[in-house]
């Protein structure tokens, strides 16, 4: 493993048998997995380049069990890594050799469907798609739809603040989650938010969403559901130049049109997806835009005409408009299958995740082409064009010496370019271990220390998911210590307690 993780606590490892027995008393039956063969399934998440078997796996199925596990581990100084479905692409659920992997796969019940308040109360192990399926009979759905929605869990979506192809109009997870139940490392259970869209006090839901398992373990989530739009149609527009597609995106947004979804794929991604799904994608274009418009039929018809006019003005070479729900779904099927499709043309790939201002799209794609030549590795680009969230897929072969190191360096340079162009290191996959050591390229030490102080307020011992997000891990006491220079206190007039 190229990425360094916290040193293992040998004293904890020496007590492994005792720890396993204590956890079996809390979660009986098949709730504890401790054999090497059975734990292999948990040694990595979706970022499979990095693997590490855990000390032990615990699979509770009640909030009380989660509370007791965390309270025991806190008392014994044992690290804990929360894990959902394991689809994270940033290594956020990578286990620790001396840590407990706390799996939430048994939390797969929808506790309440409340159509009057337009919310669903669900456990974290329920898949994203299952929420929409549970309310579809009444004409409702859950808007955020990451491409892995058939497998990814809603708890993981909250931890990573996941997006999806419809996040441009309907928002990320943070815009669609209203409340949660969270268990702190101490075992204390908290309820934050609820069914109301507005809550008094601090925005703790904003803190929890995207916290990557560093602050607490989520055991219940209240999400907003929406009524399905009357009409939804998609345009599939091809361009001879990537820059022209980028210009089309900018002009559509500039015209005040907010599509339900707007995605872009470059030529390698188009060919891979078409060979896999047979969605009817044009193969003679350099870039493909999929633009979905939804709402009342008369409005959608008008917007289609306006978007088609903009696309023609930008030099589009092909334009196909869906005429049925089946055809619209087929357009999206290719895009949503792009990641597995690329897996058919390369033994391995790294899926990157960075965000740039929309206007920087041509520069970013040009830089990616330059880096591809520099590192002599292929790259297929798939991204949420509307909000500038890039997903370059770096192709490599882990069996060839040096290729994974080149792929990592390639990916790091892409993320540095995102920051250089005015963007950020991540859009929806989180920091995890993948981007951890690049945080200094975006934040100052003061920024990072302030973020760690927030973690200390929730987890003073630093036992929840250590080694993730922060490039340098400080003890909470170090972050709070007073600095004395030349024998003088800073701001000596401030009362100190």
Tell me what the structure shows.
The protein is built from 18 helices and 21 strands. With 497 residues, the protein is an alpha+beta fold. Strands 12, 13, 14, 15, 16, 17, 18 and 19 form an eight-stranded antiparallel sheet that branches. Strands 5-6-10-8-9 form a five-stranded antiparallel sheet. A four-stranded mixed sheet has the order 1-2-4-3, covered by helices on one side. α9 crosses α11, α10 packs across α12 and α14 runs antiparallel to α15. The two termini are 45 Å apart.
Key phrases:
21 strands; 497 residues; 21% strand; single chain; alpha+beta
Outline:
By secondary structure, the protein is an alpha+beta fold. The protein has 18 helices and 21 strands. Strand 5 and strand 6 form a beta hairpin.
Helix fraction bin: 25-40%
Tell me, briefly, the overall form: globular
* Poorly predicted regions: none
Into which percentage range does the β-strand content fall? 15-25%
In whole angstroms, the N-to-C terminal distance is 45 Å
Structural class designation: alpha+beta
- Overall mean pLDDT stands at 93
Rg from Cα: 24 Å
User: Number of DSSP strands?
Assistant: 21
Report on the biggest sheet: 8 strands, antiparallel
Number of helices in the DSSP assignment: 18
What oligomeric arrangement do these chains adopt? single chain
């Amino acid at each position: 493993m190229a990425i360094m993780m916290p040193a293992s606590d040998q004293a904890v490892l020496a007590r492994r048998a005792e720890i396993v027995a204590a956890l079996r008393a809390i979660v009986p039956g098949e709730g504890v997995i401790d054999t090497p063969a059975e734990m292999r399934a948990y040694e990595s998440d979706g970022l499979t380049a990095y693997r590490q078997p855990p000390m032990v796996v615990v699979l509770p199925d009640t909030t009380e069990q989660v509370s007791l596990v965390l309270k025991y581990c806190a008392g014994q100084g044992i690290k804990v890594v929360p894990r959902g479905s394991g689809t994270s692409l940033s290594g956020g659920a990578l286990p620790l050799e001396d840590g407990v992997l706390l799996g939430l796969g048994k939390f797969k019940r929808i506790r309440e469907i409340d159509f009057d308040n337009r919310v669903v109360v669900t456990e974290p192990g329920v898949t994203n798609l299952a929420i929409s399926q549970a309310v579809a009979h009444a004409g409702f759905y859950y808007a955020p739809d990451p491409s892995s929605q058939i497998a990814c869990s809603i708890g993981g979506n909250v931890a990573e603040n996941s997006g999806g192809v419809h996040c441009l109009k309907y928002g990320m997870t943070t815009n669609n989650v209203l409340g949660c139940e969270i268990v702190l490392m101490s075992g204390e259970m908290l309820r934050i938010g609820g069914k109301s869209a507005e809550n008094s006090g601090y925005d703790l839901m904003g803190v929890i969403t995207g916290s990557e398992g560093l602050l607490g373990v989520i055991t219940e989530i209240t999400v907003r559901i929406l009524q399905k739009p009357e009409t939804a149609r998609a345009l599939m527009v091809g361009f001879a130049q990537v820059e022209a597609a980028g210009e089309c995106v900018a002009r559509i947004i500039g015209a005040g049109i907010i599509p339900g979804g707007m995605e872009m794929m470059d030529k390698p991604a188009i060919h891979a997806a078409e060979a896999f799904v047979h969605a009817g994608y044009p193969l003679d274009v350099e870039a493909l835009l999929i633009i979905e418009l939804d709402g009342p039929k008369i409005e959608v018809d008008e917007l289609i005409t306006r978007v088609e006019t903009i696309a023609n003005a930008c030099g589009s070479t092909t334009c196909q408009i869906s005429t049925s729900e089946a055809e619209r779904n087929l357009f999206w099927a290719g895009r949503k299958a792009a990641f597995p499709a690329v897996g058919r043309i390369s033994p391995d790939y790294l899926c990157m995740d960075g965000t740039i201002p929309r206007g920087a799209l041509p520069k970013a794609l040009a830089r990616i082409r330059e880096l591809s030549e520099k590192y002599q590795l292929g790259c297929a680009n798939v991204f949420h064009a509307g909000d500038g969230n890039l997903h370059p897929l770096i192709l490599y072969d882990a069996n060839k010496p040096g290729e994974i190191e080149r792929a990592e360096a390639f990916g790091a340079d892409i993320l540095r370019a995102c920051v250089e162009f005015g963007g950020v290191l991540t859009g929806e996959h989180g920091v995890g271990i993948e981007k951890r050591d690049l945080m200094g390229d975006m934040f100052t030490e003061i920024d990072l220390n302030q973020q760690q102080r927030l973690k200390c307020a929730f987890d003073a011992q630093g036992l929840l998911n250590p080694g993730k997000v922060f490039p340098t891990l400080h003890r909470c006491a170090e972050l709070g210590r007073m600095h004395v220079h030349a024998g003088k206190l800073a701001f000596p007039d401030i009362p100190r307690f």
